[in-house]
Amino acid sequence: MGYGNWDNNAFQAARTFRASRGLDDFGYTADMQGQEYSTWRAHPTLDPRDALRECRDSAEHANSLPIAVLFDVTGSMGTVPRIMQSKLGRLHGLLRHKGYADDPQIMFGGIGDADSDRVPLQVGQFESDNRMDEQLRNILLEGGGGGQKSESYELAAYFMVRHVVTDAWEKRGKKGYLFLIGDELNKPRLAASHVREVIGDRVSQDVAVASVYRELAARWHVFYVLPKQSSYYNDPEIAAHWATLLGERFLRLEDPGAVCELIALMVGVGEGRIDVSGGLADLRDVGSHAEAKAVRRALATRV
Amino acid sequence: MREHVIVVDLGFGDAGKGATVDWLCANGSVSAVVRFNGGAQAAHNVVADGRHHRFAQFGSGTFANVPTLLSRHMLVEPIALAAESVALARLGVPDPLRLLHIDGDALLTTPIHVAANRAREDARGAARHGSCGLGIGETAAYALDHRAPKVADCQDIRLLTRLLDDLAHHYAPLISDRVGSITELVGLYREFAAAVQIVGPDALASFATQGQLVFEGAQGVLLDEWRGLHPHTTWSTVEPRHARAMITALGDRPYVLGVTRTYLTRHGAGPFPTEDPALALPEPHNTFGEYQGTFRVGHFDPILLRYAIEACGGIDGLSVTHFDQHTGVQSATAYLTENGVIDAIHCGPWQDLAHQQHLTQLLTTARPVLEDFTPDTIATHLGVPVVLTAHGPDRAHRVPTALVGTAG
């Protein structure tokens, strides 16, 4: 019971107390599942419509580093979204514990299919404490998707370009980290109708996907993580699509439970705090042996 | 007038209080186990019906489904409490947190105290006090001079945040490199307050109307903050004065049940006259602790035990554990000391640490005079009836030899 890493201990304990009150880790999804599908909507704190998300410095956190994790919540992902929801709460503790980032601020969100889903995009706020955990619990796991092997990642990318401001960029010219976790292709084009309906911006023309990602890459280190246990883990078309857009920042992950560790390591490496082998040793250090192995393989099998 | 049982360890701890409490609770007459000292550092091993748990903050009556009341004399550590509730749930206790009632006046032990405790003990190097490294001493010490966070404060987020900020600020010179986020802590304590029943001073009386109370002490009397062998003591009143006071305030009568093994043990630094590393006695549940060091064993010692009984203001009965495990164990008849041969040590004025320091010095170099021993002579050695014996680790191995809770 060492408290060198008390954030994570506090998180686990809070979760135990919450569970004892019958509030499980997927409270909002459970609430929605009890209601008519036609009434499903994003939790108010995660609704992207007319929203602005900010990652700001404060007296306590003077060097804020934005990290956004948006995961696919459609049916093809299988149980992966639930795994994400239960594992990602550790991320902040892991980053802080190992000193990979001084003042990480983390935002979580969910990505669906704007052609067919009630709730195609959910984006939380950048947080540096337990409110992250609340965000995760409020993400609706709609489990939809249209069966056409594409989801609205490009809509999420657009939101990150136009509706997110960070002090890291504005004051220091420093990029944040964006992790997209999913298993399908982008839609063929960023549809103006999706932007209007979901986000509320008055956009009149569709936009090429590659151009959205070019704009995004100017301010964010963008990663795409394809976890096993999703539908298209071994599909070469998916790999080729994302590798073309992101190069070696397309990663396959054989154990979705290791997502937190993979993200922490990529941030640590990106921030120059650690090299890959040192990061893997750190993971084994905190007892994440299986996760270290999965992360090592994810990096070794880069396209 | 009801009689409530106080279970107190007459040695340095690890004698078998937990198992004794579990046995007392097993017959269904006990309405609550009341913890009256210590905190998360307690380690009371209970084996019942094939299940084993090391009780720390939950009362040892939990396997018997008896509620726990953590009294205002307790130091409460919610992170460890959560982990313990998970362990108990895995052992088949349904929703363990439902059994917990916590006095709002009890002090809160936080990771800040834990980090400070470890930083200080690390700095002592070889001169360690034998702390468990769980922040107990820091919790008590800080509360002497500051408005320390208490359990009830978890219901007032703004106040709690201020108190934790003050606490972190106070310890910053010692642990600034180990400090985590206060906001995380506040979030945790808010969940804690919502998950357990935080009660006021009336809770004890209300449990007393529903049945017998068992007061479960932590550690051993020889570690008592005022009667123990200073400075190798705990920041806690281990002898039963607080428990006696709570019972008499109810208008009821205390029955003090002292617990000892057929030999002595000590986990941590400090004098131990009858220590004998050659004693090969099985010890399944106590092992080397990073902050406490090795687990020590020694011969039966009526001199120390009679001192402990005196420190308790007398006791009514004895629960003797390890009745089946005493191979090679002898009994001390006297000590050879720098002041000559002595066969008794006595309490000085209460809270006289100079007296306690003197005893410590005397016992540090004392060498025991040993004689043959059988556990059947324990009642004679200590002048107290043996009312319960244990012939193995399980609840089923306990044998009542007289009616517990009936004087004489």
UniProtKB/TrEMBL annotation, chain A:
Record protein name field: VWA domain-containing protein
TrEMBL record, chain B:
The keyword GTP-binding is assigned to this record: yes
Cofactor note: Binds 1 Mg(2+) ion per subunit.
Localization (cell): Cytoplasm
Pathway named in the protein's UniProt entry: Purine metabolism; AMP biosynthesis via de novo pathway; AMP from IMP: step 1/2
Xref: SUPFAM superfamilies: P-loop containing nucleoside triphosphate hydrolases
Cofactor(s) for this UniProt protein: Mg(2+)
Catalytic activity: IMP + L-aspartate + GTP = N(6)-(1,2-dicarboxyethyl)-AMP + GDP + phosphate + 2 H(+)
InterPro entries hit by this protein: Adenylosuccinate_synth_dom1, Adenylosuccinate_synth_dom2, Adenylosuccinate_synth_dom3, Adenylosuccinate_synthetase, P-loop_NTPase
HAMAP family xrefs: Adenylosucc_synth (MF_00011)
The protein's role, per its UniProt record: Plays an important role in the de novo pathway of purine nucleotide biosynthesis. Catalyzes the first committed step in the biosynthesis of AMP from IMP.
Protein name, as recorded: Adenylosuccinate synthetase
Taxon lineage: Bacteria, Bacillati, Actinomycetota, Actinomycetes, Pseudonocardiales
Gene that this sequence comes from: purA
